[in-house]
Automatic annotation (TrEMBL):
Keyword Oxidoreductase attributed: yes
SUPFAM superfamilies: NAD(P)-binding Rossmann-fold domains
Protein name: NADP-dependent 3-hydroxy acid dehydrogenase YdfG
Family: Belongs to the short-chain dehydrogenases/reductases (SDR) family.
Top-level taxon of the source organism: Bacteria
Keyword terms, alphabetized: Oxidoreductase
GO-annotated cellular components: membrane
InterPro entries per record: NAD(P)-bd_dom_sf (IPR036291), Sc_DH/Rdtase_CS (IPR020904), SDR_fam (IPR002347)
Single Gene Ontology MF annotation: oxidoreductase activity
Entry annotated with the keyword DNA damage: no
A Pfam family this chain is assigned to: adh_short
Length: 230
């Protein structure tokens, strides 16, 4: 790897995380987080200066071991996420736990482990939240609650770490054309029309805008809504 700034992007094996890795790859060395080793290797081969960082974020010991190898980090993008939807009446504890485990607990723990490395670099933490983290809809309870939770996490982290030179950005995308959205629409029983949804590259563009903003600027919250397109 070269001496360009280093970014770790979780959820980089597909969807929004893969697009973020691509968008930052002109300016940053990238560690590609995810569990699907084949997809990570394929993306690493396409990008100029990237390598896989294959870790299951719900495996605390594995995360600690992988994070221990990083002593300076300029950018941490949390894009890994799961969406287990359902009405409250039909959502058992397991469904709430599954959302909170990856969407909140793993985000907090990975950030905690990497804080010294981020502080060393006056670094930047970006959390891919969701429109559901701003306004919760019926049928989305367990996922929306996790996104409200991770919004609180980002707000608190910003308040606590701004004095240490960190920037913290929450990005709130609407429906985006990824495998996660395909599963959501399949569950809702609707027809999947990608033209109605954001492209992952557009969400990645918002992340890049925050990361590449001048050192005097701190973009704290960015909402990106889909606009019908063909
Ligand atoms: N798509 C949308 O409409 C939409 C809208 C708003 C917000 N978001 C948010 O955007 C983020 C990315 O979503 P997406 O649509 O790109 O989803 P996606 O296509 O389903 O990708 C999810 C990513 O998360 C990773 N991941 C999940 N569980 C993991 C675990 N235990 N350990 C490590 N990695 C894990 C997956 O990697 P592996 O399978 O390789 O582990 C994959 O790279 C999520 O936080 C989601 O909530 C999505």
């Amino acid at each position: 790897m070269t001496d360009r700034p280093l970014a770790l992007v979780t959820g980089a094996s597909r969807g929004i995380g893969a697009a973020v890795a691509e968008a930052l790859s002109d300016t940053h060395r990238i560690l590609l987080g995810g569990r699907d080793a084949e997809s990570l290797a394929a993306l690493a081969a396409r990008l100029p200066d990237a390598e896989p960082w294959p870790v299951d974020l719900s495996d605390e010991a594995a995360v600690a071991e992988a994070a221990a190898g990083i002593d300076r980090l300029d950018v941490l993008v949390h894009s890994a996420g799961v969406a287990r939807l359902g009405e409250v009446a039909g959502s058992p504890a397991e469904s709430w736990r599954a959302n909170f485990e990856v969407n909140v607990v793993a985000v907090a723990e990975l950030t905690r482990l990497l804080l010294p490395a981020l502080r060393s670099a006056n670094g930047h933490v970006v959390v891919i939240n969701s429109g559901q983290g701003l306004s919760a809809r019926e049928g989305w309870g367990p996922y929306a609650a996790s996104k409200f939770g991770v919004r609180a996490f980002a707000d608190v982290l910003r308040a606590e770490e701004e004095g240490n030179g960190l920037r913290v950005t929450s990005v709130y995308p609407g429906r985006t054309d990824t495998e996660m959205q395909q599963a959501v629409v399949a569950g809702e029983g609707g027809e999947y029309d990608p033209a109605k949804y954001l492209r992952p590259e557009s969400v990645a563009g918002a992340v890049a805008a925050a990361v590449l903003a001048g050192p005097d600027a701190h973009l704290t919250d960015i909402t990106v809504r889909p606009r019908p397109h063909r």
